[in-house]
Task: structure prediction
Amino acid sequence: MFEVILTRRKRFGWRWQVCDQSGKIFADGFERTRPSAKYQGERALFFLLSQAYLRNRSAASSEDQRRP
Result:
C-alpha cells in the first residue's frame, strides 16, 4: 500500500512524498503550490504502480514462453 504525503514548507512551498506503509520513501519532490504538489505526488504514485504492473506482466509473459 502506497500513500502520497503533502507537507507545507515555510518558504519553499509544498513537499510531496510517495511512501509505503513502513514509511520508506519511493519518490519525493517540492512544488510551489499545493495543487501542483498533489498532482506531482499522484503522478509519481501512478508511475510506480504502472511500472510494477508492467514488470509483473512482462515476467508472466516470459514464464509462458518458457513452458513447453
